[in-house]
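Task card 7
Instruction: Convert sequence to structure tokens.
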Amino acid sequence: MMLIAEEVENSKNTQKEPIDVSVYNELFSFAASDNEVLKKESLKIILGLLDEPDLIAYILQNSQKSFKIIISSLNSQSKMVALECLLNLSAQIPTEVLERNVVEILFDLIKDEEKYEENYIDMYIMIISNLTRCKEGIYKILDITDVNQVYHNTFSVSYYLNKLLYFYFQPVQKSLNKNMTDKFMHVSHILINITSMKESLPFFKNIAFLNKLCEQILILERCRTFLPFIMNLSLHKEIHEFIFQADCNMFPYLLSYLYTPHTAIEDKNSISGYTMRPNKTIHRTIIKKSTSLVRCPVIKNRILVILLHLSKDNDTKERIKKYGIIALLNNWKENENAPDIISEIKGLLSKFEEVIEDSEPEK
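Output:
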């Protein structure tokens, strides 16, 4: 084992010197060992080499054997290293990982472990998130076997998606990953990946379901990663009748981050020229949920991008104006300190204040 480690290290230090295939054969042979120490050390070396094109090529050429060894290690003391290998591979060769039924295996593990406080569910979700970066992964999560059987006018349900959202609806928990403050943060990434495809839209055509999802907007730790999901839905006209419906909380919750109560706003009808009363045009839910202007620049900039997109289409412009967007933007402008954002707000105001001229009737 020491000789293999030395040979691997020497090959890595030598420019463009490929590692002999026999080394990979031995590494995977050791990784299949019943000796837990040998297995773990071998997997660690494999993990360290997964950035090498030669090893990826080897795994692709010996797919059945390689994945069998890594996946079987999930039932050993080397579970975490095996998961890290799968995480790396799911980012590089997601289609091949999917072909090894990894999604089904991970959901079986989730089912077994969810009752325990200490679990690896966040790692499973991270791997699944990588797998949804390809079309086949999205179809797997949505249980779409035939695109032609997707009924776009019917609300659809997916076991895998609902299971992931079950965790997403739990309170924020610390992750195994020290760099993650939210154990289930990567469910947001899965939602973003899924909604990049129009085939996903039937799974969101339900106001109660959307409102449950939108509760995550009000959790600051999740709002930032949730916003691209809103952007994706906004890009699909087919879903507009749902996300802009009067009972849908998506935009009122989102816009509540921009509103600051008790702000003095210019008012020509007031004796002093200013008023601190909420503008009657601002949606009541926005006023109810607001506390003060959000400080996070990422959230503010992403909301700006969403509003800019909505302002480009007359239909969505009129829909968003019903929330009192002009009064809201003026409120935001009064409380914003960043000059670049103030400039963006002014640009948005000019777009939303534009009068939409009716086209001339046909003669």
